[in-house]
Amino acid sequence: MNITKMKWLSALFPALFIGIFEFVRHEFLHYISMDWGNLLVAVVAGILFLFYFHGIFAMLENLYDKLQKEKEDTAVLQERDRIAREIHDSVSQALFFMNVKVLEIETALTQKREPMAAVQELHEAIKLTDADIRQHIFALQKVTEENINLISKVQEHLDQFQKKHDIVVNLRIKGNISSKFDNQVKSKLLRILQELLLNIRKHAAATQVNVSLLEDTHQCSMAVTDNGKGFDVEKVLIKKTSFGLKNLKNDVRIIGATLDLKSSPGEGTTVVISLN
């Protein structure tokens, strides 16, 4: 039954039922008094309406579940597409850089010069590319998970980050932020955290990262702070080529959150994502 039929039935059913019942009562059920007839029509109508609207609400619940499933599937596809673009861009840049270093090594060997500097840079590029690809694979695995436990997934990712990159990571938790949001929001928060950690590893030269997941009466927040070299926020904001910050702002906007970014050269960086 479609929505149009449901609307017509809801409009016509009460009038038709009462009209038919009154016709039958006056024509065939003369022994029923007016008071008892009114009571009977109210009881029968109530029972029929109960069954009717039970079916209607069951259909609406089923429709809502389908819409939610389609919404989650769409979010998964969009996230996969975004990760695929990031993999393409990062791997392409890495391969170009590696190719340049290989040519430098070949030139050095041909000219009988020491190629160790280029070899070390090539080795570091391979190491970083391997870490990037593993992180993207990790992100793809998390995209399709159901009933995400945000706290345990954050802890898992932070443990891997600390082991791989030898950066001290501290996690502070207050409340149960995981129970406050649906899978789409939790998946996006995980993605934002991964992006922030990736930027810290690539650019911050930090030795320590502090992550907080906090819930209070009015809002929930995720804060990431590092003790790295920091940067001039104003200069980054006016740069049109700052795609990382643009992607971060877009991810934050999608989940209806706010972004607070604080940093200065030599003072580290703090990013706070707040959700009401």
Topology:
Blueprint: H1 3-28, H2 34-110, H3 116-143, H4 150-165, E1 168-174, H5 183-204, E2 208-215, E3 220-226, H6 233-238, H7 243-254, E4 258-263, E5 269-275
Helix pairs in contact: 1-2, 2-3, 3-5, 4-5, 5-7
Query: What can be said about the biggest beta sheet?
Result: 5 strands, mixed
Instruction: State the helicity in percent bands.
Output: 55-70%
Tell me the overall shape.
elongated
User: Which stretches are low in confidence, meaning pLDDT under 50 for 5 or more residues running?
Assistant: none
Output the CATH topology of the largest domain: Heat Shock Protein 90
Strand order of the largest sheet: 1-2-3-5-4
The secondary-structure element order is: HHHHEHEEHHEE
What is the averaged pLDDT score?
A: 82
The CATH superfamily title of the largest domain: Histidine kinase-like ATPase, C-terminal domain
What is the alpha-carbon Rg in Å? 31 Å
Based on helices, strands and strand pairing, what is the structural class? Answer: alpha+beta
Key terms:
single chain; 276 residues; 2 domains
Question: How would you describe this protein?
Answer:
The protein is an alpha+beta fold and 276 residues long. The chain has two domains: 3-68; 148-276, Heat Shock Protein 90. Helices cover 68% and strands 13% of the residues. It has seven helices and five strands. It has helices at 3-28, 34-110, 116-143, 150-165, 183-204, 233-238, 243-254, and strands at 168-174, 208-215, 220-226, 258-263, 269-275. The chain has a five-stranded mixed sheet, covered by helices on one side. Helix 1 (3-28) packs antiparallel against helix 2 (34-110) and helix 5 (183-204) runs antiparallel to helix 7. The longest helix is centred in the N-terminal third of the chain and has 77 residues, at 34-110. The protein is elongated, with a radius of gyration of 31 Å. The mean pLDDT is 82.
